[in-house]
Write a structure and sequence with these properties.
This protein has 645 residues and is α/β, with parallel strands linked by helices. It is 34% helix and 16% strand. The protein is built from 17 helices and 22 strands. It starts with 11 loop residues before the first strand and ends with a strand. It binds flavin-adenine dinucleotide.
Length: 645
């Protein structure tokens, strides 16, 4: 076995994962370096098999039909004055502003994207390829703004292992490279990971193999091979979130179908004949709520109010630990309700029969989760449709039954049409207030750590749904018979006797659909124990702590990885959706004090502070330009230097 190459005393940081999170961290290192690190030398190694900026999820090379589910004005990679961080704000454009600068000729992009840039308004949903170009640009700009004494080295290959004692330099081993990179500090920004199949999925896969059926387990849909799903054949789809939307797009327009818009604005789907028939169901039975299609006018909901730093402090101080449903959920319900009623009373007072000050006082006095809150709303808000019941939101079709499958299709189309209408109608602006309160809650939850999959699903269902135009397409596909709804409480069984999958739901008791193919339309659950990422697996075997929900446990203060005794590793950090600080999972919205920015800033400062202490001990202070990176024997072509200054 080859030995680590010890050819440098230059401080070195290895960032594994060059997607949005790794890129955001570089932006923060650049912002904080002048204050904390001066012009001391540093090697910054960036390891990812995919191009930096977009990384795997946002790579250029994917279907042009796939969109973001955030509007262009709601996506930014740059901090602003709202962000509570110790480091400086370095302003930069949101995706919408960047597109405007491209249109103005101030920024150049691949000519193949010109049409997409020209069409992108601030409230439109960009294609993923366009977002890829934005992220590449952010990456290049962040690298260019690093001090000249920092050399960046890109390694286009996976990292497979990190070794090294707590006290010493770390070794980061890359696939196909005999010698490791030496690192004073390592940051794992690994993002969304594949996992070994959990037992239930393995059984379904084995069943499919035995009977010559198709079973596509949870995956990043753009990477799935969909060719086994044959034209005209029924396909059962479990999951009605964004992975379903991607699947729907790739199997319809992606197979040559197209939409035509009628004079009344309604879409009609013209099939290519190569589509399968998608029978889609889930626990709720409905798609995620449409993105809200209007802007907030007037006052923002004054949150945090009932779930803010003080409540989180109190929760964290509880001796017996925190149980989400028992301790946290009632506080969240009270916070969402407060945002909802504040908006209703201030923007639509004619739909209330109390004055706001009295309501607010009584609301504040009632215990979270208590019947008193419901009773107060009952007395003050005459129309039940204007009241908020967070528990009911999670079960939109509770108890709804249909006489037959056709009635179910019509019923579900009606539900989606009503949702689209409501989410584009400012008369329902309390929905927008609840959305903003959900974001606030999400930000507060960072400090509590892992909230488990239920909360994540609830948040996504309300706050991270598809663009309105996608739901209009879904309606057209339903009318064309290409998509069929299964209803709430969908169950899927493996029928061993007949050798098929079967799905049904309580919505139409006794009605079942048989199919040769089953697609699980969702991302794999995070799991440190069963991840397919060898690096993370080895880290776990080496003593890193995982939460019950399978996330890597990190110190909320600076994202240092914790061991099973709760000790932060002095030299290893992790940021992003595979950690229990995953609140920063989505792109930051401008002016929302986004948790991901706060985390990136804290981590960048922890890195630089650590390195500064080391640099002053071991490295001559004079600035210099270095082109030979640490820890490698000879330059190789894939180690392209994005920024060897
Ligand atoms: C399909 C999809 C669509 C989304 N759409 C939106 C949206 O529209 N709006 C929004 O706000 N959010 C969206 N999100 C959420 C969020 O923006 C993304 O999750 C974002 O990509 C997270 O960035 P990340 O860098 O943490 O992780 P990732 O984007 O997953 O990047 C991690 C990187 O690490 C690399 N990596 C992993 N393991 C290794 C290893 N061992 N060695 C080397 N490299 C490694 C990967 O190749 C990858 O490039 C979406 C997420 C998904 C999955």
């Amino acid at each position: 076995m080859s030995r680590p190459v010890n050819n440098s005393v230059r401080p070195s940081v290895v960032i594994v994962g060059a997607g949005p999170r790794g890129t955001g961290l570089i932006e923060r290192i650049a912002a904080n370096a002048p204050e904390l690190y001066g012009d001391a030398p540093l090697d910054l190694h960036l390891v990812d098999p995919h191009p930096p900026g977009g990384g795997r999820i946002w790579r250029r090379d994917q279907s042009p039909l796939l969109w973001m589910n955030s509007t262009a004005e709601d996506v930014t990679m740059f901090t602003d004055e709202s962000v509570e961080q110790a480091g400086p704000v370095r302003p930069g454009p949101s995706l919408a502003e960047w597109a405007a600068a491209v249109r103005a000729g101030e920024i150049a992009v691949d000519p193949g994207l010109a049409e997409a840039v020209a069409a992108l308004g601030p409230r439109d949903f960009a294609g993923r390829r366009l977002q890829s170009a934005y992220l590449s640009w952010v990456y290049e700009r962040s690298v260019a703004s690093l001090p000249p004494s920092v050399a960046v080295h890109e390694h286009r290959r996976p990292a497979v292992r990190v070794s090294g004692s707590r006290a010493g330099r770390q070794q980061v081993w890359l696939a196909g490279r005999p010698a490791p990179l030496l690192a004073d500090l390592v940051v794992l920004a690994l993002g969304h990971l594949e996992s070994e199949l959990p037992p239930e999925q393995q059984e379904l896969s084995d069943f499919a193999a035995r009977h010559g059926l198709v079973h596509l387990p949870p995956a990043f849909t753009a990477d799935s091979d969909l060719s086994a799903l044959r034209p005209g054949e029924p396909v059962l789809v479990r999951g009605f979130g964004l992975a379903f939307v991607d699947l729907m797009v790739l199997l319809t327009e992606g197979r040559g179908g197209r939409y035509v818009e009628g004079a009344d604005g309604q879409l009609t789907y013209r099939p290519s004949g190569r589509e399968p028939v998608l029978h889609v169901g889930s626990r709720r039975g409905v798609p995620y709520h449409s993105k809200i299609g209007y802007e907030l006018s007037g006052e923002r909901p004054p949150v945090p109010r009932f779930f803010g730093p003080a409540q989180v402090d109190e929760l964290l101080a509880r001796p017996g630990g925190v149980d989400f449903r028992r301790d946290v959920w009632p506080l969240i319900g009270k916070e969402l309700g407060f945002a909802h009623y504040h908006r209703l009373f201030t923007a639509h007072p004619e739909r209330t029969r109390m004055n706001w000050a009295d309501f607010e006082e009584e609301y504040a006095a009632a215990d979270p989760g208590s019947p008193a809150l419901g009773a107060l709303a009952g007395a003050a808000v005459p129309d039940p449709a204007d009241r908020l019941d967070p528990d009911a939101l999670d079960h939109p079709l509770a108890g709804v039954r249909y006489p037959d499958g056709e009635a179910l299709q019509e019923g579900l189309r009606g539900w989606i049409e009503a949702d689209l209408a409501r989410r584009h109608d400012p008369a329902h602006s309390p929905d927008l207030a609840v959305f903003l309160a959900l974001l606030s809650v999400y930000g507060q939850l960072v400090r509590i750590g892992d909230r488990g999959p239920w909360w994540h699903g609830f948040f996504s269902y309300l706050a991270s749904g598809p663009p309105g135009p996608r739901l209009r397409q879904l309606l057209a596909l339903s009318r064309a018979g290409v998509v069929r709804f299964l209803g709430a409480g969908t169950t899927v069984t493996a029928d061993e006797r007949r050798g098929v999958f079967r799905a049904g739901s309580a919505a139409v008791p006794g009605e079942w659909v048989a199919a040769r193919a089953l697609v699980e339309a969702r991302l794999p659950e995070p799991t440190v124990e069963r991840t397919r990422d060898p690096l993370l697996r080895a880290l776990y075997a080496d003593g890193a702590a995982a939460t019950p929900a399978g996330l890597l446990a990190v110190d909320p203060a600076d994202a240092r990885i914790l061991d099973r005794a709760g000790r932060p590793h002095p030299r290893r950090f992790a940021l992003g959706p595979h950690t229990d600080a995953r609140s920063g999972g989505a792109f930051a919205r401008p002016r929302t004090n986004a948790p991901a920015f706060r985390q990136n800033d804290a981590t960048a400062r922890a890195l630089l502070t650590f390195l500064r202490a080391r640099a002053t001990r071991t490295v001559p202070a004079s600035p210099r330009t270095v082109t030979v990176p640490a820890a490698r024997t000879a330059p190789t072509p894939e180690d392209s230097h994005a920024a060897d200054h």
